[in-house]
Amino acid sequence: MINSATESHSGDYSCMGRRGYNFTGWTDKPKATLKAETRIIPAGGSVTLTCSVEGSTGWTFFWYEYGKYYYVVGSSGNTEPDGSIRVSEGGKYNCRGKRGDPGFYSEYSEYVTIQKTVSKPTVVLNPGSSLKEDKVNLVCRIQEGSYWTYEWRKNNLNYYQTSKIITADSGDYSCKGTTPNKPSLILQPNWSQIYSGEKVTLR
Fold first, then answer.
1. At CB < 8 A and 24+ separation, what contacts does 123-132 make?
2. What is the pLDDT along the chain (203 residues), one digit of tens a residue?
3. Which of 53, 90, 104, 116 has the fewest CB atoms below 10 angstroms from its CB?
4. Cα–Cα distance for residue pair 125/110, rounded to 1 Å
5. Quick one: a GO cellular component term (predicted)?
6. CATH classification of 27-117, choosing from 3.40.1190.10, 2.60.40.1120, 3.40.630.10, 2.60.40.10?
7. Would you call 109 helix, strand, or coil by DSSP?
8. From CA 93, how far away is CA 115, in angstroms rounded?
């Protein structure tokens, strides 16, 4: 029994209860909880993510996007003592807490998926083209981001999959863009520290 804890007693502790012949299970690490004010970012906006560890205080929080450190603007890295950050990009986010020095880490929170609303694409007449010509060059433009896959429709029917088309046919033309989700990297087992010689699996 430790009556007065000192630095020499530092370490990871767990406990269990016993009453008569009945035993409880061993305690688990506390787990961080991540909440989002909304899961859809409006065009040009941002959302607030809040990380907490129930039942205790004094935590510094670490943030991750797709399993990698998420750099927090205004901090020295990916940490945020207040437990709240604002994000303006879609992605899969999670967090965990650290308390003390050298530090006790909570379990990672569950992932929260945030989606970003982007502006609708616009169809523009390519510079140099003229409506008086036999053919026109139409371009599908999306302001936000890159790596879009484009799809054209003519008179509400599928037409081409490209960002630009050249056509001599009259009709109602529209386009849309899709972008693939970023891959996520998962570490198994989900250890906070890895030492030389240990084996882990990346998925």
1. 123/173, 123/174, 123/175, 126/164
2. 665 666 666 666 667 677 766 666 666 788 999 999 999 888 778 899 999 998 888 888 999 998 788 877 655 566 666 789 999 888 999 999 988 877 888 999 999 999 887 777 777 776 665 555 667 788 887 766 567 788 888 888 888 777 777 777 888 888 888 776 555 555 555 555 555 555 666 65
3. 104
4. 46
5. external side of plasma membrane
6. 2.60.40.10
7. coil
8. 11
